[in-house]
Amino acid sequence: MKLPGITSIWMFPIYGMAAFLAPVSRLLKGRNFIFRGFVYTGIIFFGEFVSGTVLDRKGLCPWNYESSRWNIRKVIRLDYAPCWFLSGLLFERLLTESDRLAQEKS
């Protein structure tokens, strides 16, 4: 089964921005998971919107969501909110586990 795809070098720093979720994760510790999930969703949408808008103005944006009726300025899709909600919580879980392992080593 072939899974061809195309990406852009711009995606490396964009995905790298996920590192900014680490300090937010620590600030949200102990809060309700629904609240945390919505915060992560907002942060991811914000990052996607800003980076997509900047790249789109320069004609470099590797994605275009204009075919979705849930798009905002072609650079974010509101119907992706559940995915970003779960991705944020998964990332938080990975960070929590990584922090726990680091503490056990020291």
Explained architecture:
With 106 residues, the chain is mainly alpha-helical. It has a domain at 32-105. The chain is 59% helix and 4% strand. It has four helices and two strands; from the N terminus they run H-H-H-E-E-H. The protein has helices at residues 11-16, 21-27, 33-57, 81-105, and strands spanning 71-72, 76-77. The chain has a two-stranded antiparallel sheet with strand order 1-2. The longest helix has 25 residues, at 33-57. 16% of the residues are buried. The mean pLDDT is 93.
Describe how the helices and strands are arranged.
Elements: H1 11-16, H2 21-27, H3 33-57, E1 71-72, E2 76-77, H4 81-105
Helix pairs in contact: 3-4
Q: Helix share of residues?
A: 55-70%
- Strand content is under 5%
Largest sheet, in brief, is: 2 strands, antiparallel
- Low-confidence spans: pLDDT under 50, at least 5 residues? none
Number of helices: 4
Gist?
The chain has 106 residues and is mainly α. The chain has helices at 11-16, 21-27, 33-57, 81-105; strands at 71-72, 76-77. Helix 3 crosses helix 4.
Keywords:
106 residues, 4 helices, 2 strands, two-stranded antiparallel ribbon, 4% strand, single chain, mainly alpha, globular
